[in-house]
């Protein structure tokens, strides 16, 4: 799994590449949380364009980060989930809590 | 129902092997008349079951064993059995409730996903002995004449 972080003012963009399962869940959780705790972050964008697989361990990371950012009065967005990943996100109900967009540009335009 | 083909493999309870296990069973399922979407669903349920073995059955101990047997049957169905020899589940009914998890950092969606994407789910567990998960999924029967 590869992680890329980009901070644009108070928004943290996380681009994830690979499979989101129990192997990477802990690392992913720690790395995102470290950024959220050390930087002044109000919004979190998770880009899943290059995520080929997600299971409940990966969902746990996303749902946990949603709880964390909303506890800081921030907002979270999910970008670019391919159909197989989108289906699992929908199954978990996270799509009712988090705005989902096709690409990063769509968020910038809102 | 007649068995047409099977694979059986055992591996160490290392998180890295979760990906190996789901890819193997997914590749095996490709022998059936199933769609890529269905193969993704098979991979997902195997990932859930094997993660459960490692996280809950073995409390993340990595020197234990997980056994998988996948069988293709004559009615175009597939059975998958995932077995661990870990601590077992104290209350199976509670473990299968949506959003229940013995670990607060987890979603508790594993069994719910397994139930949703498979046609049958059976759990056998004995405390201190281990757990066997049996999953079954029916696929559309191949009908070459209908396609002709």
Walk me through what this model shows:
The complex is a heterodimer of chains A (110) and B (148). Helices cover 44% and strands 34% of the residues of chain A. Chain A is an alpha/beta fold and 110 residues long. Chain A has one domain (2-108): Transcription Regulator spoIIAA. In chain A, strand 1 (2-8) and strand 2 (11-20) form a beta hairpin. The longest helix of chain A has 17 residues, at 22-38. The radius of gyration of chain A is 13 Å and the shape is globular. Chain B is an alpha+beta fold. Chain B has a single domain (3-147), classed as Heat Shock Protein 90 (2-Layer Sandwich), CATH 3.30.565.10. Chain B is 35% helix and 29% strand. Chain B contains five helices and five strands. A five-stranded antiparallel β-sheet of chain B has the order 1-2-3-5-4, covered by helices on one side. In chain B, helix 1 (16-29) runs antiparallel to helix 2 and helix 2 runs antiparallel to helix 4 (110-117). The longest helix of chain B has 22 residues, at 36-57. Chain B is globular. Chain B starts with a strand and ends with a helix. The interface between A and B is medium-sized, with 17 and 21 residues.
Notable characteristics:
heterodimer; A: 110 residues; alpha/beta; Transcription Regulator spoIIAA; 34% strand; B: 148 residues; alpha+beta; Heat Shock Protein 90; 5-stranded antiparallel sheet; 5 helices; globular
Summarize the structure.
The complex is a heterodimer of chains A (110) and B (148). Chain A is an alpha/beta fold and 110 residues long. Chain A contains four helices and five strands.
What topology does this entry show?
The complex is a heterodimer of chains A (110) and B (148).
Chain A: E1 2-8, E2 11-20, H1 22-38, E3 43-54, H2 56-71, E4 75-79, H3 83-92, E5 99-101, H4 104-108
Parallel strand pairs in A: 2-3, 3-4, 4-5
Antiparallel strand pairs in A: 1-2
Helix pairs in contact in A: 1-2
Chain B: E1 3-12, H1 16-29, H2 36-57, E2 65-73, E3 77-84, H3 92-95, H4 110-117, E4 120-126, E5 130-138, H5 144-147
């Amino acid at each position: 799994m590869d992680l890329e972080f980009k901070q644009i003012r108070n928004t943290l963009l996380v681009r994830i590449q690979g499979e989101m399962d129990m192997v990477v869940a802990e690392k992913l959780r720690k790395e995102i949380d470290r950024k959220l705790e050390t930087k002044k972050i109000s919004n979190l964008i998770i880009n899943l364009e290059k995520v080929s697989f997600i299971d409940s361990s990966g969902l746990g990371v996303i749902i946990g980060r949603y709880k964390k950012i909303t506890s800081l009065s921030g907002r979270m967005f999910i970008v670019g989930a391919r159909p197989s990943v989108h289906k699992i996100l929908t199954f978990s109900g996270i799509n009712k809590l988090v705005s989902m967009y096709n690409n990063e540009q769509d968020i910038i335009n809102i | 129902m007649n068995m047409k083909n099977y694979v059986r493999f055992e591996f160490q309870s290392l998180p890295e092997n979760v990906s190996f296990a789901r890819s193997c069973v997914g590749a095996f399922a490709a022998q059936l008349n199933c769609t890529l979407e269905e193969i993704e669903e098979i991979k997902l349920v195997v990932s859930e079951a094997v993660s459960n073995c490692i996280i809950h059955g073995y409390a993340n101990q990595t020197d234990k064993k997980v056994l998988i047997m996948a069988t293709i049957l004559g009615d175009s169905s597939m059975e998958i059995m995932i077995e661990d020899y870990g601590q077992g589940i104290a209350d199976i009914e509670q473990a299968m409730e949506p959003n229940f998890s013995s670990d607060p950092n987890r979603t508790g969606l594993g069994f719910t996903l397994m139930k949703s994407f498979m046609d049958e789910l059976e759990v056998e567990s004995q405390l201190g002995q281990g757990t066997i998960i049996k999953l079954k999924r029916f696929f559309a029967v191949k009908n070459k004449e209908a396609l002709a």
